[in-house]
Structure prediction request, 121 residues.
Amino acid sequence: QVQLVESGGGLIQPGGSLKLACAASGFTTSSYIMSWVRQAPGKGLEWVSDIHSGAGDTFYADSVKGRFTISRDNAMNTVYLQMNNLKPEDTAVYYCAKWGQRPTRDGMDYWGKGTLVTVSS
Prediction:
């Protein structure tokens, strides 16, 4: 069955870096759009980044563009989010999500349980 397991969160000082990982099983990440989505305390879900299937085109929210990088290791079937120059407003639970075979119809059909990133001095 499909499983997504995030790791790599933690407490980091402003300006620091973290790399999140999303280990996938039950499907091949390179065949689907994969996303990172975050939820700050007391707020709604915020899309962060996508990596598309095939060539792996990437997309970012304006709030993280230039600081975060999404990537994929096909051999490990894992998606990563490298986060640099972290800010307190990046504090959130970060979720990895898989899109369905037909994204506009299916949306994000599987989610991980999330990993908490806290940016604080």
Notes: The helical segments are 103-106. DSSP finds one helix and eleven strands in the chain. The radius of gyration is 14 Å.
